[in-house]
Specification:
This protein is an alpha/beta fold. It is built from eight helices and nine strands. Strands 1, 2, 3, 4, 5, 6 and 9 form a seven-stranded mixed β-sheet that branches. Helix 4 links the parallel strand 5 and strand 6. Helix 2 runs parallel beside helix 3 and helix 3 packs parallel to helix 5. The longest helix is centred in the C-terminal third of the chain and has 27 residues. It is globular, with a radius of gyration of 20 Å. The two termini are 28 Å apart.
Length: 245
């Protein structure tokens, strides 16, 4: 049997490189290939944009881009794992929770790395993957639900706020090592933030509280993903061996 070889012309290589660079510019993403596995890196930066379009001068993560991308990555046989790099101030609650739910529901190996900040709705996004890491200098702000614009001062409004808040608390408690009571206590803490209620925690504190799995940098996050990928491959090989026997 003759071995098939694939050749790529210099122009094709250039086109592929240009496509990769454009992908990074457009979506803040990149794919790395190695013998240990193919990893798709996705950034969650700036403000998570919801149904309202933010000004062009603001750095944003658009949910209408990220959601279909995650759905396609879950089905892409060429991608073995997904790395989320977070440096976000938060943003739209439902858009952020929607992205977080998609990530937590993925079968593929996933890991997050909090760099700079993972504030507000960035907290559920940080804990959504199977493994979460944070650099020592990063911070995370945990505070109650807030809303801009006209608010009707009625019991139904406050009940609505509480129900939204419960969705966030339940998601974080389910996808991390922190208890519901402890996270709610951080959310409602007074005296720490100027003109606001809540808490600001940093790298090592986030780990000691059980919110984030461990302290680490980029190489640690990649190693964590490669370990997950290796475990998936071993499971597949074991399943195939069972079928053969």
């Amino acid at each position: 049997m003759e071995e098939e070889t694939k050749t790529t012309s210099p122009s094709q290589e250039g086109d592929e490189a240009d496509h990769g660079r454009q992908q990074i510019i457009d979506f803040g993403s990149a794919v790395s290939h190695s013998s240990r596995g193919n990893i798709y890196t996705l950034t969650i930066i700036g403000q998570v944009e919801g149904h309202q379009v933010l000004p062009d001068t603001a750095k944003t993560t658009k949910y209408e881009h990220v959601m279909p991308l995650l759905a396609s990555l879950e089905q892409d046989e060429e991608v073995d794992g997904i790395l989320l790099l977070l440096n976000t101030v938060g943003g739209d609650i439902e858009a952020g929770l929607g992205i977080a739910e998609l990530v937590s529901g993925m079968r593929k190996p996933t890991a997050s790395l909090v760099l700079g900040g993972g504030h507000s709705i960035g907290v559920p996004l940080a804990v959504a993957p199977k493994a979460s890491l944070i650099v020592p200098s990063a911070s995370m702000t945990i505070h109650p639900v807030r809303m801009n614009g006209t608010v009707i001062a009625a019991p139904q409004t406050f009940n609505y706020f509480e129900r939204i808040q419960e969705r966030i608390v339940s998601f974080v408690a389910k996808n991390s090592g922190i208890s519901r009571e402890k996270f709610l206590g951080l959310m409602l803490k007074t005296g720490e933030m100027a003109a606001d209620v809540g808490s600001v925690i940093y790298g090592e504190e986030a780990v000691s509280l059980g919110l984030i799995d461990r302290i680490g940098g980029l190489s640690d996050a990649l190693d964590c993903l490669y370990e997950q990928i290796a475990a998936v491959r071993r499971e597949r090989e074991a399943a195939l061996a069972e079928v053969r026997t």
